[in-house]
Amino acid sequence: MASSKRKPNSALGLASKLIAKKIRFEAELRQKLNRYPREEVDEAIEHLYKIGALDDEEALRTFCAGHQGKTILSREALAFSLEEKGVRIDPSLLPEATVSELVRALALKKYSKKADLKERARAGRWLCGRGFGDGKVEQALTQYFDPCEEA
User: What are the residue ranges spanned by the domains of the chain?
Assistant: First the structure.
């Protein structure tokens, strides 16, 4: 009995299936299509560009938009994530999160505005772990949390 889910038997078929699920970068598609002959992959990529199904600029906008809010990342961290997908980009070309976006991320993570110093430090480590520098992190913490009482 034949399976109802048939695997695409061409580079174009697989590329179309992958793009139908989510927007992708050309480099990412090329990695996924490495089992096909290079010429066939080139033709598939060219066809997808012609019909407007493949657009690296749109993929970049979508990728950056997806890393706002709870999953916020610094420029360098975004560039690293892109490099893992086979896309090399100068981090200075990527959007940098503003302090207000960091404050919003803290709210989305549901940190209590009345947190103690331990919780505030935890929130700071969370932002630092996403690649943000001390200055921006401290500004965001100061804006988000009520002023800490001195002991």
Answer: 11-54, 67-151
**Tens place of pLDDT per residue across the chain (151 aa):** 444 344 568 999 999 999 999 999 999 999 999 999 999 999 999 999 999 999 988 998 888 888 776 678 888 888 998 898 888 888 888 888 888 888 888 888 888 888 888 989 999 999 999 899 888 999 999 999 865 554 4
Q: How far apart are the first and last CA of the chain?
A: 74
| Tokens 């399976």 sit on residue | 3
CA dist., res. 66 & res. 26, Å (int):
18
Is pTM beyond 0.90? Reply is no
HEC string of the chain equals CCCCCCCCCCHHHHHHHHHHHCCCCHHHHHHHCCCCCHHHHHHHHHHHHHCCCCCHHHHHHHHHHCCCHHHCCCHHHHHHHHHHCCCCCCHHHCCCCCHHHHHHHHHHCCCCCCCCHHHHHHHHHHHHCCCCCHHHHHHHHHHHCCCCCCC
